[in-house]
Design a protein that fits this description.
By secondary structure, this protein is mostly beta strands. The protein has no helices and eleven strands. Strands 2, 4, 5, 6, 9, 10 and 11 form a seven-stranded mixed β-sheet that branches. The chain is globular and about 40 Å long. The chain starts with a strand and ends with a strand.
Length: 126
């Protein structure tokens, strides 16, 4: 699976952005799809994950719960991250990732995911 993330940019605090991650060369619906982020000088951080089905209930990090929403469109081979009420601390490079069920790692662990997009920069100004 190849993943291509897009939609990042510069936004003021309180604003919104929607990231997209398009998948190719694989069966998209076989994969759990996650978003991670990484700010300079920090480790990659779990943001959220959605199961293989478009009707799956996503799981989110506490830091984004209630502000971010993950959805997926299996027909379009795309997963989305809608980010509302953005804060300066949300500034990071955002990565999408794909992994199959049953890997033995927590969905919050980057080790669970076999395929990664190239990242898209999100900058939130105060």
């Amino acid at each position: 699976v190849q993943l291509q993330a897009s939609g990042g940019g510069l936004v003021q605090a309180g604003g919104s952005l929607r990231l997209s991650c398009a998948a190719s060369r694989g069966t998209f619906s076989n994969y759990h799809m996650a978003w991670f982020r990484q700010a300079p000088g920090t480790e990659r951080e779990f943001v959220g994950v959605i199961g293989w089905s478009s009707g799956s209930t996503p799981t989110y990090a506490d830091s984004v719960e209630g502000r971010f929403t993950i959805s997926r469109d299996n027909a379009a081979n795309t997963v989305y991250l809608q980010m509302n009420s953005l804060k300066p601390e949300d500034t990071a490079v955002y990565y999408c990732a794909a992994g199959k069920a049953g890997s033995g790692y927590s969905v919050r662990s980057s080790r669970r995911y076999d395929y990664w997009g190239q990242g898209t920069q999100v900058t939130v100004s105060s």
